[in-house]
Amino acid sequence: MRRIGVDTGGTFTDCVLIDDEAGTITVEKVPSQPASPELAILDGLLRLVARAGLRPGDIDAVIHGTTIATNIVIEETYAPAGIIATSGCRDVVEIGTQQRLRPYDLLHRPKPVPVPRDRRHEVAGRLGAHGMEVVPLDEAATRRAVRALAAEGIGSIAVTGLFSFVDPVHERRIAELVAEEAPGTYVVISSDISREVREYPRFATTAVNATLAPKLDPYIRRLEAKIAEAGFTARLYVMQSSGGIATARRSMGERAHHLVLSGPAAGIIGGVVTSGISGITHLVTLDVGGTSADIGIVAGAETRVRFEMELPNGMPLHVPNLEIETIGAGGGSIAWIDAGGALRVGPQSAGARPGPVCFGLGGTEPTVTDAQVVLRRLNPAGLLNGGLKVDEAAARAAIAGLATRLGLGVEEAAIGVVAVMEANMAGAIRRSAARHGDDLRDFALVAAGGAGGLSTCALALALDIPRVVIPPHPGLLSATGLLTADLRHDLALPVMMDALAPDEALVDRQQAELEARVTCDLVEDGIAPGRWRCDHALDLRYVGQEYSLPVPAGRGEAIEAVVGRFHEIHARIYGHAAPGTPVEITAIRVTGRSVAESREMPRVAPHAAPPKATRQVWFTEAGGFVETPVIARFGLSRGETIDGPAILEQLDTTTVVPPGWRATVHDSLCLIIEEIAP
Q1: DSSP-assigned letters across all residues of 567-615
Q2: Considering the entire predicted model, what is its pTM?
Q3: How many CB atoms lie within 10 A of CB 105?
Q4: Which range marks the domain in which residue 525 is found?
Q5: Which of 476, 465, 481, 480 is nearest to 673 (CA)?
Q6: Confidence of residue 228 (pLDDT cuts 50, 70, 90)
């Protein structure tokens, strides 16, 4: 089988081809085109198959990780949408929980929601908590609301019924009326989006879907069409926020909001691959691109999945998602001085264009990449094997302007820029570890992304992480993760049941129902029987709590055993448990996934080593520039060691080994970097 993984970042689009028959990996990296991401993808695909000596028709699958949905929610560039809600629920998405980030700020202004109030309509019609109709649906009012939204040019409508998770009859009728009054309008109902009991997360998730789908669906269709026009017959899959992949068809419409973490999720799955080949089971992944840094944790060679996330505007999104901490810290992050005279880095980024000053694409603001060029950690002769030219003089001029304002030398200002960015990353890693009480001394730090290898040793030292792991292709780790991800479906049913006196027969029936639905989906997606597995879980909470915890539960397992596991998980996450306190079950879950034959990647054969070179590189440990060996990464042999200072270069990244550190080439061709014992 021949598979291509394509990861679109803010600066570069990474492509990896795995040929299982030949046992080879081929890689390609091209500049992203933010205005038309599909064009950069097509360029990368065609370059990749040509480099591998293949034709487009030889490829069996293309798996894509996209940051389009991520960027929409960060930049709040949602598509215009409307809401039709149960009478009295028009403002639920804006009122939220009334929790405030700054409770003592009397002038606090909440961020606007994606659907403003004048596009939110309410209509009479209500179901009771047990599904009985209390007030009939006012169809005439519904038609008026649809016509009013259509007159404003709104092409997407979210329907949010108060108790629709019990019976969606009113929501489905409203959807029919929308189709009659405004044919062609995208309509999504909350009962199809989420069976969540709490109305705010369910309404908010439905509203977000209605504002994402009109932008994401055309993009996926364009990408499919471009690939087909170029002669590719491969099926297109898209990475989901859960770390699983889905077909292009299942990634559109009512599942568009599942792509909010599509790009970042792939890097965490790449961390699982790294865990498998290196034998290190506890990893912190640091994926540093041009615009952002994504932090994830792999514990026991497994990812961590949660079922609700908070968007930058504070709205909850009810969707399975990997635990990822994302900050605005990448190679293109702009360095600036705040009103108090302090040096700051990010979250603003120069992106792919105009990009860092050193790339000569029109950038004028000093960036982290410019600072690394000044320190000569990045090759001043160019990157991407010479495909991307670097102007060292321009980088120095950009940092010099910053240095003058700070009263520092150019190199001191450059190292300050790097240090501030590293401090931001360290804080994000600490926050990620704190969620589950992780002791970072038990973990290794995995460098990923084009800029990951430049800072990992400094971060490891600051965080007391004992070792750094550099995968064979760290700049392409997300694309590699795409190629090993499982095809995945998550389903859930809400319940409200006393866990100390449960109806175990009902739980078993609903588990069987969900398992049947998810296996049907897997069969439709082409997964043969015997190549899937179903994992079950129950959401539990102490009576009186607002939030639940998902607890693994085997099919038919005694609820008493699941409750005992709940107490253990609660104690680990929150530091306390209360055995003997009443516990209730709030949801039944099942995850169906394909089972890959192997997560192992073909190994890249070492290249012939080019002549060794050296250049002057700035290291804080040495107090200035040091003549430093510059070594081709794939000229190294298994078992070989390199003592710092050293610069290891390859197509997709540069790795810095500071003085006092030693890099060893693992049998998997991962680099294991550790501080040399005094």
Answers
A1: HHHHHHHHS---TTS-EEEEEEEEEEEE--S--PPPPPPPPPPPPPEEE
A2: 0.86
A3: 9
A4: 488-594
A5: 465
A6: very high
Q: Is residue 83 part of a domain?
A: yes
Least confident range from 129-138, 248-257, 381-390: namely 381-390
Taking residue 626's Cβ as centre, other Cβ atoms within 10 Å add up to: 17
* Of the residues 577, 594, 611, the one at which a domain ends: 594
Convert the pLDDT of each residue in 498-522 to its tens digit: 999 999 999 999 999 999 999 999 9
Assign 386 a pLDDT band (cuts: 50, 70, 90): low
- DSSP symbols for 505-542: HHHHHHHHHHHHHHHHHHHHTTPPTTSEEEEEEEEEEE
Q: What stretches of 378-476 show up as alpha helix (H) in DSSP?
A: 392-406, 410-434, 456-463
Which amino acid is it at 609?
Answer: A
Q: What is the pLDDT at residue 606?
A: 47
Question: Do 2 and 54 touch, CB atoms closer than 8 A?
Answer: yes
Residue 29: strand pairing partners: 14
What CATH code is carried by the domain that includes residue 500? 3.30.1490
Q: Is residue 248 very low, low, confident or very high in pLDDT (cuts 50, 70, 90)?
A: very high
Specify if 524 maps to a domain: yes
- Token pair of 562 as six digits: 């699941």
Q: Does residue 254 sit within a domain?
A: no
**524 token code pair:** 């439709």
| Of 197, 215, 233, the domain-final residue | 215
CA distance 244 to 269: 9
Q: Mark residue 386 as left, alpha or beta (left: phi above 0; alpha: psi -120 to 50; beta: remaining).
A: left
Domains identified in the chain, total number: 2
SS3 of residue 239 by DSSP: strand
Identify whether 660 is part of a domain.
no
Distance between CA atoms of 76 and 79, rounded to whole angstroms?
A: 9
Pairing of strands 82-86, 156-160: parallel
Structure tokens at 177: 């009326």
**Single-letter code of the amino acid located at 93:** V
